[in-house]
Design brief:
Helix 8 crosses helix 20 and helix 10 crosses helix 13. Strands 7-8-12-11-10-9-13-14 form an eight-stranded mixed sheet. It starts with a helix and ends in a 12-residue tail after the last helix. By secondary structure, the chain is α/β, with parallel strands linked by helices. A hairpin with a 4-residue loop joins strand 13 and strand 14. The chain is built from 21 helices and 14 strands. Bound molecules: 2-keto 3 deoxy 6 phospho gluconate and iron/sulfur cluster (SF4). Keywords: 4Fe-4S, Carbohydrate metabolism, Gluconate utilization, Iron, Iron-sulfur, Lyase, Metal-binding. Pathway: Carbohydrate metabolism; Entner-Doudoroff pathway.
Length: 601
């Protein structure tokens, strides 16, 4: 099937829009690559410092003839998804030595667990942590002794931050190594029901704690299709993982074999070999378009609409929201994974997973087939799946039939004809909604506004029984400049209870939601934000608000709305506590949500 006309047109528009930035970026990468192997430019003293602790590898490193692999790791015990990385460096070093190379941990990057900080003050550092991760990875790679790198990261801001760094150091090859999802526990929808019962007082904290720990119960990525697992999808559609690496559970022989294979492949594709694959060649316009198609086809996280523009700019590419809109309009929703459905990513993987989807979308002409990936040339490689043979990974053709059509469907018979994310525009600015997780009859909500300046006030109003009729809950001053644009996912149980009571409810905010948020229609990322004088700051209690994801509109219907003066809020309280003091420079310099709310890119 020839390439879809819209996919082709959007790609050409991105290439034209990015021509100047991309040309300058690629020239920088070419010059850096021309300088040759990194270590050759360091003094003996520099090198001796770099190799001093590398007992057993010092001679090989000093000889400079074999490739040296930099490991950038986001290991910590806070994220269940990153805890498995504790054992990776030793595995990678042994794999490197076994093929005549070397590997060193270049440095670590911070990783915030949005589940630990959800609803807490710490969440106000979350989005900015993406850029901190890019900076920290830059510090690691600036030692300049590496011929390629492996990036150990999975979760929400970590993969985007690492991709920003990998693109900045795009003259060296890079492979992303995942940890894989934890085995399935208490189903996500059952956990959500217990939360709603806790919100109404039907169950106590002990029952809630039991449900939460039955859902999040061991090392590995949480099993809902949120931002972390959307990142994994992205790494396959964009060719930065090995094929089928995303959803193999941690602590299994295949998982370890994939880590070894990733290290070996990273050492094969350096400039010292004959298959040089620098990140700058992998992360081109076609790769980003393929990533956006994957986001829409899987009903992925709204957070990637923030992260992808920032990641792309680091690679010299300008993405615009219209690109997301138009690719969504031609991309069928093929997967139903929580919060879009009842299945989790383990079930999705068993039903055929990403390999099945990539094969289907390639055959339908909805993906660029001719991309350069870390595994080789052509995205068709990612329609394969990894198998374990004699302790090594071999790739075999993936399933070309869905194994469960309640989870995964063919392009010809999708769950929805278009993608999972809808953009909205109007006198309230620009926003978006994850329509794949919201019942179609709730894609258009018109109701009077109740205006709040923080999520706890919404919960207090709920507890006081103040919500007794259809309501659009406006939570403003939650944008990047106000308080770092936290996720307001903690409101989901409260608003879901109101919805289940039969009320028409919607959330409108300049903040974010989690990729795990669903069910309640939420118009998020409203830009420009209230703290920058954006139109949300003009909304008053009682104003009629229309949220229309079907026609892409977000409006306040108050007749005098345009003539109003935006209100301001005292945001000084956001400047201290739980490290917020350190992030004033981020709040002052953050870009707008529509371009990724970046600080470093
Ligand atoms: O996918 C994302 O964007 C997320 O941020 C997921 C968060 O980690 C949630 O907070 C975890 O889900 P809950 O246990 O419902 O809080
Ligand atoms: S998926 Fe979210 S909650 Fe789970 S480990 Fe990652 S950041 Fe934490």
């Amino acid at each position: 099937m020839s390439l879809n006309a819209t996919v082709s047109r959007v790609t050409q528009r991105i290439e034209q829009r990015s021509a100047e930035l991309r040309t300058a970026y690629m020239e920088k990468m070419r010059r850096a690559a021309e300088e040759g192997p990194r270590r050759a430019h360091l003094t003996c003293g520099n090198q001796a410092h770099a190799f001093a602790a590398a007992l057993g590898d010092q001679d090989a490193l000093a000889a400079g003839r074999s490739p040296n692999l930099g490991i950038v790791t986001s290991y910590n015990d806070m994220l269940s998804a990153h805890q498995p990385f504790e054992s990776y460096p030793a595995l990678i070093k042994d794999a490197a030595r076994a093929i005549g190379g070397t590997a060193q941990v270049a440095g670590g990057v911070p990783a915030m667990c949005d589940g630990v900080t959800q609803g807490q003050v710490g969440m106000e550092l979350s989005l900015f942590s993406r850029d901190v991760i890019a900076l920290a990875a830059g510090v690691a790679l600036s030692h300049n002794v590496f011929d390629s790198a492996v990036y150990l990261g999975v979760c929400d801001k970590i993969v985007p931050g690492l991709v920003i760094a990998a693109a900045t150091f795009g003259y060296i090859p890079g492979i992303f190594l995942p940890a894989g999802p934890m085995p399935s526990g208490l189903p996500n929808d059952e956990k959500a029901k217990v939360r709603q019962k806790f919100a109404t007082g039907e169950v106590g904290r002990d029952a809630l704690m039991k449900a939460e720990m039955a859902s999040y119960h061991s090392p590995g990525t949480c099993t809902f299709y949120g931002t972390a697992n959307s990142n994994q999808m992205l790494m396959e559609f964009m060719g930065l993982h090995l094929p089928g690496a995303s959803f193999v559970n941690p602590g299994t022989p295949l998982r370890d074999a994939l880590t070894v294979a990733g290290a070996e492949r990273a050492l094969e594709i350096t400039a010292l070999g004959n298959d040089y694959r620098p990140v700058c060649d992998v992360l081109d316009e076609k790769a980003f378009v393929n990533g956006i198609v994957g986001l829409m086809a899987t009903g992925g996280s709204t957070n990637l609409v923030l992260h992808l523009p920032a990641m792309a700019r680091a690679a010299g590419i300008h993405l615009a929201l219209e690109d997301f809109d138009e690719l969504s309009s031609v991309t069928p929703l093929m997967a139903k994974v929580y919060p879009n459905g009842l299945a989790d990513v383990n079930h999705f993987h068993a039903a055929g997973g990403l390999g099945y989807m990539i094969g289907e979308l390639l055959d339908a002409g909805l993906l660029h087939p001719d991309t350069k990936t870390v595994a080789g040339d052509g995205l068709a490689l990612y329609a394969q799946e990894p198998k374990l043979k004699d302790g090594r990974v071999v790739w075999e053709p993936g399933s070309r039939e869905t194994q469960n059509d309640r989870i995964l469907r063919p392009v010809t018979d999708p769950f929805q004809p278009s993608g999972g994310l809808a953009q909205m525009y109007g006198n309230l600015g620009h926003g978006m909604m994850k329509v794949s997780a919201v019942a179609p009859e709730r894609h258009v909500i018109e109701a009077p506004a109740r205006v709040f300046h923080d999520q706890d006030s919404v919960k207090a109003a709920f507890k006081a029984g103040e919500f007794s009729s259809d309501t659009v809950v406006v939570v403003r001053f939650q944008g990047p400049q106000a308080n770092g644009m936290p996720e307001l996912h903690g409101l989901t149980p409260t608003l879901a209870v109101l919805q289940d009571r039969g009320l028409k409810v919607a959330l409108v905010t300049d903040g974010r939601m989690s990729g795990a948020s669903g069910k309640v229609p939420s118009a998020i990322h409203i830009s420009p934000e209230a703290a920058a004088g954006g139109p949300l700051a003009k909304v008053r209690d009682g104003d009629l608000i229309r949220v229309d994801a079907t026609n892409g509109k977000i409006e306040c219907l108050a007749p005098d709305f345009d003539d109003r003066t935006p209100v301001t809020a005292d945001l000084t309280g956001n400047g201290h506590g739980v490290g917020r003091e350190l992030f004033e420079v981020f709040r002052k310099n953050a870009g707008i949500a529509a371009t990724g709310a970046g600080v470093v890119v």
